[in-house]
Amino acid sequence: MSERHLLVLDAGTTSTRAMLYAPDGARIAVAQADLTQYYPQPGWVEHDAAEIWTRTLDCARQMVDRAGGADRIAAIGITNQRETVVAWDRQSGDPLGRAIVWQDRRTADRCAALREAGHEPLVQQRTGLILDPYFSATKMRWMIDHRPDVAAAGDRLAFGTVESWLIWKLTGGLHISDASNASRTQLLALDGEGWDADLCALFDVPSTALPAIVDNAGRFGSTLPDLLGGAIAICGLAGDQQAATIGQGCLAPGAVKATLGTGAFVLASVGQDLPSSTHRLLGTVVCQLDGRRHYALEGSIFVAGSLIQWLRDSLGLIEKAAHSDAIARSVPDNGGVFMLPALSGLGAPHWRPEASGIISGLTHGTGRAHIVRAALESMAHQVHDLAAAFAADGAPWRMLRIDGGMSANDWIAQDMADILDLPVERPDDVETTARGAAMLAGVGCGLFPTLEAAMQAMLSQSTSFAPAMDDADRQRRLSGWRALLRHDA
Ligand code: ADP
Description:
The protein contains 17 helices and 21 strands. By secondary structure, the chain is an alpha/beta fold. The structure holds adenosine-5'-diphosphate (ADP).
C-alpha cells in the first residue's frame, strides 16, 4: 500500500486552494478557486466568509478524490491570510456579515485615537505590533459597534481569523486559533498564554467570543465524516507568512525569508527570545510547539508585485509580468532613472502612509526599458532598507531566501543579491506557504518526530544567486535611492 498524503488548505486573500503533498515533499496536485473581493467604500475590503468556506471545501473534496479517499490522507494542514476577522453565530454556524480583510483601513481613526491617548508603547511592548488598522482587534470592535446582529448575538458571538472559521466549519463547532494567527490579533501578548485581559479591555473586545489558543502542530480535531467522505485529523495550522518561514526552513535564529507577492513580507527568526524592535519592525510568533514559542522580527513592504501589475494594467508598458525580466536586461543600466514605488504609502521601516510614488531622472534618452528596470530595481532597494533596519535591531542577515510569484524573476533575484551584497536562495518550488503547513501537519500527526525532521524530509531544492556587482555601481544605486527617499520626506 502506498504512503498516505498530507492535505493542505491554503485560504489566501485572492484565492483559496487545496494541495496534496507526499511525505517526501513532492506536490501531487492542486485545486484552486478565486475569491470575490468586495470594496464597499474607499479603504474598505471585505470577503464573504460563506464563500471562503464553500470554495475551500470544494477544493478539498477534489484533492480527497485525487488521493483516493479520506483514508488516504494522513492529516490536514491549514494556512491562511492573516488578521482578517470573521464573526459568526455559534448556534447557526452562519457568518454575521462579511469578513473584514487585513487590507481594510476603516479603523484608522480608532487607531489614531488610541495612539493619541498614549497607548501605543504598551501595545507595542506586549504584542510586538504597532497601532494600525491592519491588525484584528479594532476590526472586531468595529463589527460590534456597527452591526446590530453582532452586538445582539451575546454569548452566541464567535470571532476568529480565517483558520479558526474553517476549523469551526470542518469540525462542526471546535473554536480554536493557533499561536501564530493569534499573535496578529493584537490581543495576545508575545509571551502570554491566553488572551491578554488588559488588551481585551483596551480594544473593548469580549474574550468570551474568542477561540482557545493552541500549538501550531498537534491533533486538534477531526473533520465531520460527511464533509470529505470520512473523518480526517486536522494537525497543522499557521498564518501564511509564518507557514512560508517554516516552508523555507528558516526556523533557526538568523535565518531570513522574503515572500515577494502582491506585497513583500520579510521574517527573520530570532529563536525563543522575545523579539523587540526600535526601528519600527514587528515582533511576531512564528510557531508554538509543545507550548514553546519561536519568534521572528517582521518587516512588511506594501507594494511589490502590485507595481508590476501597475506597469502592465495602468501604464501598459509591459504585456505580461514575466516579460519584465527581458526588458530590464535589454538596457545596460537604469539610465539615471529611479522609482519610489509608494503607490499605497511606504511600509516598514519607513511607515509613511501618506507617501506617494516618484519617477526621477527622466530625459529624452529615457525609454520604456529604463522605467521597467527602475521599477524592478526598487524591489532590491526596499529590501535593502529592511536589511538595514533588521541589522540596527541586532538581527543582521547573512543570506536571504526568497519565494512568492515575483521571485520567479531571475533578474530581480540577482539584483537583490547584488544590492544586499549577500547570497540569495530561491527554492525550486516557490509555494513555500503550503509546504510549511504540510510540514506542521506532518509533525502534528506523528509522521515526523520534530519540525526539523519534517523540514529535512520536505524542503525543496534551491537555486543560489551570488552577489556580483562592483562596489562603485552598488554605491551609485544606493545613493540614487536615498535621494528619492529624501525628496519624498
Ligand atoms: P499573492 O500570493 O500576493 O497573490 P503571488 O505570490 O501569486 O501573489 O505573486 C503574484 C505577483 O507577482 C503579482 O503581483 C505579479 O505582478 C508578480 N509577478 C509574477 N510573475 C512575475 C515575474 N516574472 N516578474 C515580476 N513580477 C511577477
